[in-house]
């Protein structure tokens, strides 16, 4: 019986220690879902210039973090109604993708550039892509997905 009480107590202590570490880590962004409308084929756009919204990710944790930004194609189940997956990730370029030692309450900022190919096939289409912001190198990884929605102007 004493062994059982010891095991339960030890388990609770370990869970509390790991919960505290997890709770102390965090990221936040105001770039959770961004919609760019009336985009024209053959043109390049900047979210910073068009929407006044660069991608900004803030370290809300208590320790410095290394941050990586990656583009992801959404799964069919993740698509917003009426949208399809962007045909090519090469349409999107991040000004910067790697950030080292982002201190607590500091931000990593980058512009997101969108280049729509000169092809009438895309007229009137709506596309979706994710930007995955995640920590690297730590014992506990955290991340968040930002949804970028593109509406191409029709004829």
The CATH level-2 architecture is identified as Sandwich
Beta strand %: 35-45%
**Tally of DSSP β-strands:** 12
Q: Cα distance, first to last residue?
A: 77 Å
Instruction: Sketch the topology as an H/E string, one letter per element.
Output: HEEEHEEEEEEEEE
Low-confidence stretches: 8-12
Largest sheet: 6 strands, mixed
Mean pLDDT across residues: 88
Specify the structural class.
alpha+beta
The CATH topology, please? Answer: Immunoglobulin-like
- Return the domain count: 1
CATH superfamily: Immunoglobulins
Oligomer: single chain
Overall morphology: elongated
Rg value = 20 Å
In which range does the helix fraction lie?
10-25%
Q: Count every helix, treating DSSP H or I runs of 4 or more residues as helices.
A: 2
Q: Which CATH top level class fits? A: Mainly Beta
């Amino acid at each position: 019986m004493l062994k059982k009480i010891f095991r339960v107590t030890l388990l609770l202590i370990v869970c509390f220690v790991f919960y505290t570490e997890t709770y102390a880590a965090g990221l936040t962004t105001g770039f959770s879902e961004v919609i760019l409308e009336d985009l024209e084929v053959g043109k390049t756009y900047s979210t910073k210039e068009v929407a006044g919204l660069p991608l900004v990710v803030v370290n809300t944790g208590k320790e410095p973090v290394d941050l990586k930004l990656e583009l992801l194609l959404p799964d069919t189940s993740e698509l917003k109604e009426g949208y399809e997956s962007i045909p090519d990730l090469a349409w999107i370029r991040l000004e910067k993708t790697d950030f080292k030692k982002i201190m607590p309450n500091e931000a990593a900022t980058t512009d997101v550039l969108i280049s729509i190919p000169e092809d009438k096939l895309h007229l009137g289409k709506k596309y979706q892509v994710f930007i995955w912001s995640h920590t690297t190198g730590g014992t506990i990884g955290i991340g968040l997905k930002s949804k970028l929605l593109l509406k191409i102007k029709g004829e």
